[in-house]
From TrEMBL:
<feature type="transmembrane region" description="Helical">
    <location>
        <begin position="429"/>
        <end position="448"/>
    </location>
</feature>
<keyword id="KW-0150">Chloroplast</keyword>
<feature type="transmembrane region" description="Helical">
    <location>
        <begin position="334"/>
        <end position="353"/>
    </location>
</feature>
<feature type="transmembrane region" description="Helical">
    <location>
        <begin position="135"/>
        <end position="152"/>
    </location>
</feature>
<dbReference type="GO" id="GO:0005471">
    <property type="term" value="F:ATP:ADP antiporter activity"/>
</dbReference>
<feature type="transmembrane region" description="Helical">
    <location>
        <begin position="390"/>
        <end position="409"/>
    </location>
</feature>
<feature type="compositionally biased region" description="Basic and acidic residues">
    <location>
        <begin position="621"/>
        <end position="630"/>
    </location>
</feature>
<feature type="transmembrane region" description="Helical">
    <location>
        <begin position="172"/>
        <end position="190"/>
    </location>
</feature>
<feature type="region of interest" description="Disordered">
    <location>
        <begin position="95"/>
        <end position="119"/>
    </location>
</feature>
<dbReference type="InterPro" id="IPR004667">
    <property type="entry name" value="ADP_ATP_car_bac_type"/>
</dbReference>
<keyword id="KW-0472">Membrane</keyword>
<feature type="transmembrane region" description="Helical">
    <location>
        <begin position="254"/>
        <end position="280"/>
    </location>
</feature>
<protein>
    <recommendedName>
        <fullName>ADP,ATP carrier protein</fullName>
    </recommendedName>
</protein>
<keyword id="KW-0547">Nucleotide-binding</keyword>
<keyword id="KW-0067">ATP-binding</keyword>
<feature type="transmembrane region" description="Helical">
    <location>
        <begin position="561"/>
        <end position="588"/>
    </location>
</feature>
<dbReference type="GO" id="GO:0031969">
    <property type="term" value="C:chloroplast membrane"/>
</dbReference>
Amino acid sequence: MMMATTCCASFAAYRRGGGSGGGGAAKHYRSTTTTTTRAPHLQHYRRQHHSSCGGNGGARAAHEETFLCAPAAASASITANLRRKHAFWRLAASSSASPPADSSGNGGDGSSSSSPSSSSQPEFLGIAMSTLKKVVPLALMMFCILFNYTILRDTKDVLVVTAPGSGAEIIPFLKTYVNLPAAIGFAAIYARLSNLMDRDRLFYTILVPFVMFFGAFAFIMYPARDTLHPTEFCVDLLDKLGPRFMGPIAIVRNWTYCLFYVMAELWGSVVVSVLFWGFANQIMEVKEAKQFYPLFGLIANVALIFSGQAVRYFSTVRAGLPPGVDGWGMSLKGLMSMIVVGGFCIAGIYWALNKYVLPTVGPIEGAAKKKKEKLSMSIGESVIFLAKSAYVRSLATLVVAYGISINLVEVTWKSKLKAQYPDPNDYSMFMGNFSTATGTVTFVLMIVSRYIFAKFGWGVAAAITPIVILITGATFFSLILTPGVWEPVLAYLGFTPLFMAVLVGAAQNVFSKGAKYSLFDPCKEMAYIPLDEETKVKGKAAIDVICNPLGKSGGSLVQQLMIFTFGSLAASTPYLGVVLLIVITMWLRSAARLSALFEGAQQNLRSHDWDDPGEEVVPDSDLRADPNERSDEEPTPGVVKTS
């Protein structure tokens, strides 16, 4: 057996075919070459293509190689897929060919072949200084924003749950009838202001009112609460309507606390999502975002740890106060003073970035490109789109199920927390420790999540969050509904059933939120990747319009129905447990179904990439390290054997 090979062309003929240009090389290769083996010629041609298109001094040296080819009769054995790839390479080479480099390393036109920021850019620890100038201030800004948000989140619960005539029953009504209209109103105001102001003025116009309100609440509104709250009117109204209406009446009775609750909720959605991430996306390049955005997530959890301890510290000031002094009022002044200082730090960092950093780092890569129009879908269009796509329906079920299930357990837990800690300072101290634990667990889970995704895949990662909520939620409800079963454990630990329920509920929230931040959110975003562009954009728009609000308010609506039906949240607890079980079951089924669809979509995507003639990157199987290596499933094309 011997392999017939012939020399395709001389070096001079090759140079006449376009030695310095990728198009000529591709033409010469296509017209005269019939491969003896598939892999060597792909490797050889790709080396020729890259060296000939680069426009540098190594181009001519690479062109001095000769092609060894089989007889022309063997050309028919080249597959159609390979021909399409050759056509694409020829087109890409001709479009990217550049004049030969001169001895100075410049292009043929005398210009430098490298960008100004390539090799001359100063670095620190392998990171470009221009990038560090942006990342470090953004990280500090993120820390301040999340530090403030954790304090506000813990404080708002203390205010509305421990307020006179109130309880955890107020939360479902607040989220549905106060938070949602406030969010819609802010969206309308923000859209109007964004058309009237530039970026800097808009940032300060949104941030400053938040800071001023929280400062005014601690030093003006809270001390004057007895004057501002219509206590007598609400007490008479509650006597007439009955305890079923305690939640709505408590909103009116403690309206300043509820206003604080709404502003604290808006801080999370407005300052974090709109102001910070909007600004970061404007000044960060895509390659920088991929590298440093995960770092911001870790910083957020570090902020949770520190802010939780700050809440705990200010909740202990009551011990050193003389009798008759409102300890919770003093704690509020200390906490809101930190909010004000943090707000000014955020504004100062933003000003310094725009004043001193951004003018020195040059234009942002891709900033001149036309911004892609964001698809806006009405509620009716969103419902129709969700009904048509099984993939998007399954993803929507995950989002709605999380919102409902976490709300069902969290509100019930907060009602037990108030029973255990009726004093606002004690309640606040516990919430501070709770936030610290949440930040620590989430930080660890975010590191472990990389291993989970790599080892077990998307399906297992997506199932962990509902399983965690199911196990911890079932344990929590069993402590409330069947305390006798836990008597041996309680006797051994020396805990009361109420305190044990508080601890288990806290653990449920800590691990559920940690799993949500580290696993559920990445799974949700990854699920969009293998979709085609239309389904990806429309599906995300449909979920934003329908599923996010439904998930947040769905649990609240269920609890409101239970409260009106059974009279109180405590009487509704057994039925809430049943609803939780149903929701988790639907969640797990949808996660399993979506996992199969996700894997199938990925396989289709890989198959499409292999068959696509416009594919830029050649699969590794076409560029083997060993030229003589071939798989058992396919013959080696272009080989002519003679005996």
